[in-house]
Amino acid sequence: MSFSPSRLLLPLSIVVLAGCAGQQKPVVTLYDADDCSPLKLTQGQELVLTLPSNPTSGFRWELRNPAASVLKRLGPEVYSNSEEDSGLVGSGGESTWRFRVAASGDDRLELVYRRPWEKDAEPAESFSCAIQVR
């Protein structure tokens, strides 16, 4: 049996393509808006946003603009107590949202921290991040 270049090229091509297909894009994790100037992402990438939160005080993060033209939410907000204060009543924690980049374009991810029943009050905090997807 002779090994011609074309017979070697096909198996090698399959191995190379399989290796490329298995590579995942890195997950981008944000903890504040300081990393947004703007935040540059690529299609298929995952974005995890984690912000300090204390719902026992009545305050909640509200998605004012979910950047739906470029991001797809992967589920609801997930709240968790901080590890050092997990046994304390009324202690704070953090809220986390997960998104997947779904389309190219520019948008802005915006959240406000407020008490939902205080409709006319200014938010206690806000988060705003310009998103660029290429």
From TrEMBL:
Pfam families: Inhibitor_I42 (PF09394)
Alphabetically ordered keywords of this record: Protease inhibitor, Thiol protease inhibitor
Gene3D superfamilies registered for this protein in UniProt: 2.60.40.2020
Entry's transmembrane regions: none
Domain called Proteinase inhibitor I42 chagasin: residue spans: 41-131
Keyword Chaperone among record annotations: no
PROSITE patterns from the UniProt entry: PROKAR_LIPOPROTEIN
Record-level Gene Ontology MF annotations: cysteine-type endopeptidase inhibitor activity
Protein name: Chagasin family peptidase inhibitor I42
Organism of this sequence: Pseudomonas aeruginosa
